[in-house]
Amino acid sequence: MDFNMKKLASDAGIFFTRAVQFTEEKFGQAEKTELDAHFENLLARADSTKNWTERILRQTEVLLQPNPSARVEEFLYEKLDRKVPSRVTNGELLAQYMAEAASELGPSTPYGKTLIKVSEAEKRLGAAERDFIHTASLSFLTPLRNFLEGDWKTISKERRLLQNRRLDLDACKARLKKAKAAEAKATTVPDFQETRPRNYILSASASALWNDEVDKAEQELRVAQTEFDRQAEVTRLLLEGISSTHVNHLRCLHEFVKSQTTYYAQCYRHMLDLQKQLGSSQGAIFPGTFVGTTEPASPPLSSTSPTTTAATMPVVPTGAVLAPPEEAALCLEEVAPPASGTRKARVLYDYEAADSSELALLADELITVYSLPGMDPDWLIGERGNKKGKVPVTYLELLS
Amino acid sequence: MNIMDFNVKKLAADAGTFLSRAVQFTEEKLGQAEKTELDAHLENLLSKAECTKIWTEKIMKQTEVLLQPNPNARIEEFVYEKLDRKAPSRINNPELLGQYMIDAGTEFGPGTAYGNALIKCGETQKRIGTADRELIQTSALNFLTPLRNFIEGDYKTIAKERKLLQNKRLDLDAAKTRLKKAKAAETKSSSEQELRITQSEFDRQAEITRLLLEGISSTHAHHLRCLNDFVEAQMTYYAQCYQYMLDLQKQLGSFPSNYLSNNNQTSGTPVPYALSNAIGPSAQASTGSLVITCPSNLNDLKESSNNRKARVLYDYDAANSTELSLLADEVITVFSVVGMDSDWLMGERGNQKGKVPITYLELLN
Q1: Which residues partner with B357 through β-bridges?
Q2: Fewer CB within 10 A of the terminal residue: chain B, N end or C end?
Q3: More confident residue, A136 or A340
Q4: Residues 235-274 of chain A whose Cβ lies under 8 A from any Cβ of chain B
């Protein structure tokens, strides 16, 4: 009981002392120990790192899961320490609907057939998205969260301790100053009171008393200074750890970029496959539809072919617009089958060669084409038998 | 008075018609009256139209969810649409993330490795955000709008005509019932006349409905075209994003020099020995990660089947005659061969050729 009471009183005293010091600082009535510039920089850098890491973390979470209801659900599961059930992604759900629609509308009709193909691609896109979310969460979000909940909490705690130590230190300094002032005042009193023996005795006692007080204050100051310096050192070491935090986060950022690249590469490949399938079924679409549909329906359908053709062609201009010539060639190669590097193409319109480096073309003929690095992205090399030359991409319909 | 009479007469007639239909409908349900069956072809068309409507609606709704997963944003857009006001252009999620990354990089210091990487990554995220917005707009215009127009336009018309057909059929069957019950010759003659009229109207309505229903085929053709447009929009989106990510990886691939610079900057500050040790392993892990990043670029190399220049990072002694010995810092030409182990490439130095391990190389453009 005594021990607890003493400790409680002691803590209350310390708390009160700190509160007084803090208040006097705010009113400008007390001096404040300033941290050195380097230390202040470290603190600012740590704050900045914490704030931006938090923002990037939150926004990446929103990017990966835009539905706030789903995020709340995942948060609850996490707090309850339960495994989050695997949710069907939006792409996968769309794929399912398309597949079921195709079954109902007739799998053998052109629309039904296309719905089936598109639904398979959408399902793969949905799976790729799920993988991306999982990988990005694991390699990017988790480390950022660990920093905020681990390292940063430690730094915050040590900073708070440092603040307390500094208040203690400044309180001791204030106390020492007061003691010295009192001592000085006490030593000047004898000049006026020497002639009276009783006053002289009292004056000496007071002087001795204040002297003891000064010594005690100085002792306390040394202790507080030592503790402050030690705490400052500990905090500084932790703050300098922010550099390794940056290195770690840089590595995580690379992982995120890698998983995002993988995601888009997969999606791009799935879309390429889909376009090839849709392009190859173009011939099948028209006759089937023509047989199954009445006359009035034919005109609208006939415009499907140009659209499909147009859907295939823009792949090339897209690559051309986005990339320098070298990379345009690379992007164009993405379209080509990896195995051979060459493709068959059907000529859409007649073309007269403008010079000997070009190949003349006749409408409806088939030629072999391939690209060369560094060549203008609007041209390919075409071969017909033993003849070879440049051919304009816009005159061709690439076949798989 | 005439007006009053006219209204009353019309009202009575309508009430009579309604009552007749109600009686006929009830008797059909109770099995006490005959029902004219629609021909099989018309039934098939009706079923097909119903099916098309249901699935078109589901696909449309789910595509909307796919393009805008946030239900709050969808509700907001819906309200704006109903109020016939233009929805304000909202910064989308990738753009916001990009903005945060750029701001963070600027504050951390563009000269530092992490800050530099954040800025580059942020710029790429912004471009992805722009591509994302374009995908949404294009898909909404070319795919969702036609589907919505079908549901709110064509299908509503079909539903209306279908209802009329139902009413005509009830009138026809009511007339048939009345004819059957007629006794007197005069009443019979009148009923026959009425029957011919209702039969004629029914046939006309059936024809109109059939024509509308047969339009479903052209609807399918139209939706097929819209589906192709949607595929094209998605294709463009993923091609663009893939290109952006490739560009970003190439920029980040120049990381070693940045890191060296950062290291020099860090070493300018007094760092305790223990802390240096802490940074060391991270740096090594970071370098390891960079090497791992290369295979992703190498996949591009394999697909492109093009020759590329590569710088050798470490000495390598050939283990057999199929391999090529390497010296650190030299530049060789490499290409991939179909069917070869993915950890190896074919390397050429002058007229010497052989397999080289990928992990020993740094690919150049």
Answers
A1: B344
A2: N
A3: A136
A4: 237, 240-241, 243-244, 246-251, 253-258, 260-262, 264-265, 267-268, 270-272, 274
